[in-house]
Amino acid sequence: MRLPKPALLGLALGGVLASGAIADDTRQLARDVFRELIEIDTSTTNGNTTTAAEAMAARLRAAGFPAADVAVLGPDPRHGNLVARLRGTGARRPLLLLAHLDVVDARREDWTLDPFQFVERDGFYYGRGTQDIKDGAALLVTDMIRLGREGYRPDRDLILALTAGEESGEANGVDWLLEHQRPLIDAAYCVNTDGGDFQLKDGKPRLAAMQATEKLAVDFRLETTDRGGHSSLPRRENPIYRLAAGLGRLAAFAFPPELNPVTQAFLERTAGIESGSLAADMRAVLKTPPDAAALARLSDSPYFGALLRTTCVATMLEGGHAPNALPQRAAANVNCRILPGHPPAEVRATLVEVLADDRISVSEPAAVLVAPPPSLEPELLGALERVVPGLWPGVPVVPTMETGGTDGYYLRPAGIPTLGVSGVFLDLDDVRSHGRDERIGVEAYHQGVEFYYRLIKALSGVSRP
After folding, report:
1. Crossing angle of helices 378-391/442-459, nearest 10°?
2. pLDDT tens sequence across 44-99
3. Fewest CB atoms within 10 A around its CB: which of 39, 99, 235, 401?
4. What pTM does this model have?
5. Do 400 and 358 contact (CB within 8 A), yes or no?
6. CA-to-CA distance for 197 and 400, rounded, in angstroms?
7. What is the DSSP string of 165-178?
8. Torsion of CA 297, 298, 300, 303, to 10 degrees
9. How far is residue 141's CA from residue 135's CA, in Å, rounded to a whole number?
């Protein structure tokens, strides 16, 4: 795909709202909220999510939310979480709307712009968190204020949670709330803005994603040792060589392909918007048995390869203790992204078999939360299929599996199904989350605000404003 010019991006996204143009006051509110969040440093090392949570709480209270329904709470002064509730009739169980406030570190010397200054330039908003995921937090706050101001009474409570610790795992807000304040966030299910990225191709909306499951991330430490000695007297036994040989065998290995209901639906729907050999390969993989040649071709793509199988990759390497000594130890970290339904112990057993060397130890996996099998949420899928065409005619809704990880890791095992819907279109050739000069399209963001406003109403009793 070719990176679209900003003017093309604006044209592609700017004309689709003729039937529901965004009011100027809503647009300004959405921009102001976004700017305030970006300019509060919530980074892992130096930031403070409590400051951001308090700022958003003040906006909600000023919009008329009762103080009793807006809370900032957490395990310590730096890791505050915001939980706010718009009360409904109670006809149905609550809906949880989620985004995280924390962002990864960003150094000023690495960026063209100050990462903690909100800058609009060439059709984009720049700043740390514009993609991950303060755009989601800002649009949810904006829409909750809109709904509150208009006196909207849904048929279920709407719960907004803006949380800490998603990026670092330190003082994770969702985990803490489940343990200490579960009634505040208990819901029929959660719609998480940190997943299900809407996709652009050649500057035009390609698909609206609903992330219905995710892989499980587990690290394993591989290690081998020897007595060492003087480097002038090398021996056949060398931990670095032994480990390197084992890693070579791992590099040549691929876990068997496997589809689940979500990835099967993804391939079925995506094949309908692709063409040529790629579409043909997607359909061939869906056959029983899948076509081996098509599997091999799709697996050459890092993205499709990650969708089709569990992956394990070496990410860190260490060895030796002195330049003039034979190594006494060599070790590697192997990061595995495990398909739903497979326990880490099973993957560890496969690693041991592939390494084929009993002198390379493989650590036992840390305790993990095990989610239920992946499934689609019919209510949300149906709402998306009603709302999306009203904004982006002809754009299909496609279920996806997250190859990384989100706070759904905590919510799904706790009995709160979690679906990712970003609502904001990204060019997959220009994903800058966690990177330098992070940015989001101006029109993409503002249309995300309108999209979520309509989606929330579709999920709580009213399909259109």
Report:
1. 130
2. 999 999 999 999 999 999 999 999 999 999 999 999 999 999 999 999 999 999 99
3. 235
4. 0.89
5. no
6. 9
7. -TTT-TT-HHHHHH
8. 170
9. 10
Q: How far apart are the first and last CA of the chain?
A: 36
Which one is the CATH code of 6-213+372-459: 3.30.420.40, 3.40.630.10, 3.30.70.600, 3.40.50.2300? Answer: 3.40.630.10
| Tokens matching residue 65 | 């939310």
**Architecture of domain 224-362 in this structure:** 2-Layer Sandwich (3.30)
C-alpha closest to that of 188 among 463, 464, 460, 465: 460
pLDDT higher than 80, residue 318: yes
Task: Specify the DSSP class assigned to residue 103.
Answer: B
Residues contacting 46, CB < 8 A, separation 6+ = 105
CA distances to 215, 257, 286, 302 from 309, in Å = 10, 5, 14, 11
CA–CA distance, 418 with 264 (Å, rounded to integer): 19
In angstroms, how far apart are the furthest CA atoms of the chain?
Answer: 82
One-letter amino acid of 318: E
